[in-house]
Design a protein that fits this description.
Blueprint: E1 4-7, E2 13-17, E3 20-24, E4 45-47, H1 53-56, H2 59-66, E5 69-73, H3 74-84, E6 89-92, E7 97-99, E8 103-109, E9 126-132, E10 135-139, H4 149-153, E11 159-163, H5 172-182, E12 186-190, H6 202-212, E13 216-217, E14 225-227
């Protein structure tokens, strides 16, 4: 079964496999690069990596409209429950794995900060290894480079989704180093070109991935999908 991924701009991704649709870090209505608004997506699951506005912005309205299950770090899951009266929420923590109808989600560390839009404590930032049909997709989410990415790669990563925007996350240089540590079959960039401070040359990134790693780079524009 093929898995289709669509970049919805910034750090938001749509993952579709069979009858299951997952959205990661929904930021659509206020995003300058999103190809659609939040009322056009109909996920079964919502993954939230950390509490910053540009990652949680549309989670509540999507969850209330679609009854999608939200999966997030425990503190964020409790915020959804208590502040927004959402009950179809799973709270987990770093290193944990949650079995789902499509496979599983494992929560990985991320080196970043995390605070919810109203100032509430948001726990630890995270990434995800999403297992669908025995294939692992690693969403590093907002993070700096860290050496334990090599351990994440030991699980066998079909696709790594890595930030390249710099300033708030790792940039191109560290993304190339991360790719060498993870050793995925394929890699695609995220969290760039939303605003001028995180503008990057994705073609230059792809060239370096081809020349300096064993991974195959995949480039797409917001709204474009590709299958693995």
């Amino acid at each position: 079964m093929s898995i289709k991924l669509t970049w919805l701009g910034h750090a938001c991704w749509l993952i579709e496999s069979g009858k299951t649709t997952i959205i990661l870090d929904p930021f659509l209505d206020d995003s300058p690069t999103a190809p659609c608004k939040s009322d056009k997506v109909n996920p079964d699951f919502i993954l939230v990596s950390h509490g910053h506005f540009d990652h949680v912005a549309d989670s509540v309205k999507i969850a209330k409209r679609t009854s999608a299950q939200i999966i997030a770090v425990f503190e964020i899951s409790e915020w959804f429950r208590t502040k927004h009266e959402l009950n179809n929420v799973v709270g987990m923590n770093l290193g944990g794995r949650y079995s789902t109808s499509f496979g599983s989600v494992k929560m990985t560390p991320a080196l970043h900060s995390s605070q919810l839009p109203d100032g509430s404590y948001a726990g630890n930032p995270a990434g995800f290894v999403v297992n669908i049909d025995q294939r692992n997709i690693y969403f590093a989410c907002d993070t700096a480079l860290f050496s334990d990415m090599q351990l994440i790669g030991h699980s066998g990563i079909e696709l790594a989704v890595l930030p390249i925007g710099d300033l708030f996350t790792m940039g191109i240089e560290d993304s190339v180093s991360a790719t060498r540590l993870i050793a995925p079959r394929k890699v695609t960039p995220t969290h760039f070109n939303t605003w001028p401070p995180i503008e990057q040359d994705a073609e230059q990134w792809a060239l370096r991935i081809r020349n300096e790693t064993s991974a195959v780079p995949i480039l797409s524009k917001p709204g474009e999908g590709f299958s693995i």
